[in-house]
Amino acid sequence: MPNSKTKLKVGMIGLGDVSPFHIQAIQNNPKAELVAVCDTDPSVASKAESVPFYTHYQEMIQAHELDVVHNCLPHHLHYPVTKECVEAGLHVLLEKPVAISYEEALLQKTLEDTYPQKICVCFQNRYNPTFLEMLHWLNKKETGTIQGIKGLVTWYREQDYYETKPWRKTRSEVGYGNIMSQSIHTLDLIQLLGGQISSVKASLSKLLDVESEVEDTVSASFQFETGTKGYLHATNANVSNSSVELEVITDTERLTIKDSTLYRTKSTGEKEVLAEDEELEGAKSYFGASHTYLIDSFYRAILEDTTDYITVEDALPSIELIEMMADSSKTVAEPKRIYK
Questions:
Q1: Please, where are the H alpha helices in 150-183?
Q2: What distance in Å separates the CA atoms of residue 179 and residue 323, rounded to the nearest whole number?
Q3: Which among 291, 340, 339 has a CA at the least distance from the CA of 77?
Q4: 248: which strand partners?
Q5: Where are the domains of the chain?
Q6: Are strands 91-95 and 32-38 parallel, antiparallel or unpaired?
Q7: Quick check: pTM over 0.85?
Q8: Strand order across the beta sheet in which 68-71 lies
Q9: Helix, strand, coil content of the chain in percent (nearest 5)
Q10: What is the rounded distance in angstroms from the CA atom of residue 1 to the CA atom of residue 301?
Q11: pLDDT beneath 70, residues of the chain
């Protein structure tokens, strides 16, 4: 049944690096009002000026009649905090990953199946105009069958990235490294394009001179049940944050997303631009601008009581794929952190 409210009261838990994208999207959305924020570090309160600030999310939840919270906490807190919020009657917009293991992700799925509250997982790149146009083009008969999918995520993370927030290099708190913190968005798109994966062979390794329990680099090949082949290379050891590249090769042409632009290359070599993404300014511009689209879609789903958002079930394949990659690599073992 559609919600009788016209504006949602929103709280945010966690004011880390990704929080400015959420704050801006909330404050610019006519369907929502940011009424409270929370972080254990009081020095970050200025990220949401003139908004009540709390250092304990339970206190925030009790002090305000919230409709939805954004869970932007470190990975190991995604499940337990989401559980508390859902049990308190709140909808949750959950930053990726859905959980730090597939077993824990299934517990998130149990929450989704048990409670009426909605849990949306923040895979905002699904809303990029370039990716949506790629899907549209792949549905055309003349494009033919997908033969191969390639993903490249070559970014740069220096020592300070890990040292200022040690959870990023601790297996029990982060789960995995690059494949869970950086390249999971591209993995999500690859599995969305390719469908059910039949086999994976991957190498997870550490190229950075950082004392870390998790990988910073991965190379992987995928075999899909359709016969399509896939390849991913992702690293935090590049010299800069280069553009993410996603390429699909079909019977008749090549579709490439690079530098926020979707290109179509015909068999004749002729190239044309099909779509472009909105680009943000600043150091994190490579994150893209699609948080706004995802958040607005989720708010609309709450108000209209629809399922038009990225559910926990939608996000399960990304975690399953990560564990398949880790299992196939001799250098990384499976993390275990389960909350009952």
A1: 159-163, 171-174, 178-181
A2: 10
A3: 339
A4: 149, 255
A5: 8-125+292-312, 129-275
A6: unpaired
A7: yes
A8: 53-54, 32-38, 8-13, 68-71, 91-95, 119-122
A9: 40, 25, 35
A10: 11
A11: 1-4, 280-288, 330-340
**Given phi > 0 = left and psi -120 to 50 = alpha, else beta, which region is 36?**
beta
Measured in degrees and rounded to the nearest 5, phi and psi for residue 137 equal: -70, -35
Q: Which architecture does CATH list for 129-275?
A: 2-Layer Sandwich (3.30)
Q: What angle do CA 46, 92, 276 make, to 5 degrees?
A: 75
The one-letter amino acid code at 228 reads T
Helix pair angle (102-114, 312-328), 10° resolution = 170
Quote the tokens at residue 164.
């200022």
Q: Report whether 191 contacts 324 (CB < 8 A).
A: no
pLDDT digits (tens, 9 = 90+) for 71-109: 999 999 999 999 999 999 999 999 999 999 999 999 999
Q: Which residues contact 227 (CB under 8 A, 6 or more apart)?
A: none
The pair of three-digit structure tokens given for residue 246, joined into one six-digit string? 């996603």
Tokens 């794929």, located at residue:
321
Q: Which CATH architecture has domain 8-125+292-312?
A: 3-Layer(aba) Sandwich (3.40)
Q: What is the dihedral of CA 31, 36, 38, 44, to 10 degrees?
A: 90
